[in-house]
Amino acid sequence: MKTLTITEGRGRLGYWLKRATHGDDIGFVVDGAVVALRPVEVHSADYALQEYGLSEREMAAAEKKIAASIKGARSRGEVTKFTGGKNDFH
Questions:
Q1: Looking at the chain, which runs of residues are DSSP E strands?
Q2: Are 47 and 63 contacting, i.e. CB atoms less than 8 angstroms apart?
């Protein structure tokens, strides 16, 4: 395993991250412990459960409530749709 201090790795962080994604063992020494860089699978389907403890049913209900709240705020003129244009920032 290639181990680096934070200072050593900071300047070429992208390089070290790419090496880790290609299977190389890369670690950073932090307070005397080695923290390894490893690629992980991200499953967005279970994000709400992992992050907020919501079931699929609870997440669907939350989505509806949020959408209704945004729709109401738009109709009251409290928020506008972001289009990416420079006029969105006034």
A1: 2-5, 26-30, 33-37
A2: no
66 within 8 A of 59, measured Cβ to Cβ: no
Tokens found for residue 37: 């860089």
For residue 70, count other CB atoms closer than 10 A to its CB.
13
Total domains in the chain come to 2
Determine the pLDDT at residue 43: 66
Name residue 58's amino acid.
E
89 occurs within a structural domain: no
Is the sign of the CA dihedral 9, 11, 12, 13 positive or negative? positive
State the pLDDT confidence band at 90, using cuts at 50, 70 and 90: low
What would the pLDDT profile of 26-45 be if each residue is shown by its tens digit?
Answer: 999 999 999 999 998 776 67
- Record the tokens describing residue 83, joined without a space: 């289009």
